[in-house]
Amino acid sequence: MSSQDFQSAFALFRDMREARIVDLKGSYLTIMTGLMENHWPELMEAFLDEVVEDPRIEVGTHNWNSIIHAFCKAGRIEDAERTFIRMGGFFDVVMQLVEKANEMKIFIDKWRYKQAFMETHKKLKVAKLRKRNFRTMEALVAFKNWAGLNA
């Protein structure tokens, strides 16, 4: 398949979104699978960026991991690291985990999550996120408050 084929698929997918078609999951998965099989992580990333805010499509951590894997497989480690840093899902997942653990009265080691944050996201600024992704910004602020990193 050529890049032009996928550009056509993207255009059709956009038309489907604009037409307010409810079930886009199959089309989304087909495009992501095709991009993965043809080793086009940059197109996967562009496509994911376009659909990440659409509530009809569930973008999970595994989607970001697929992009990171494809970049690594192509030897593009810098791109893989950049994608990992952009993966704002870290905060959403941690906050969901914290909420569930509190619900079930299970102890959570804040130190482990603080350490993971400091190793991978210490340069992440709320001001930058405010411009790009409000939901991720909210999750980041909640995580920092929970972990005690707002000093």
TrEMBL record:
Pfam families: PPR_1. NCBIfam families: PPR. Belongs to the PPR family. P subfamily. This is Pentatricopeptide repeat-containing protein. Keywords: Repeat. It comes from Clitoria ternatea (Butterfly pea). PANTHER family: BNAC05G43320D PROTEIN, OS01G0788900 PROTEIN. Gene3D superfamilies: Tetratricopeptide repeat domain. PPR repeats lie at residues 60-90.
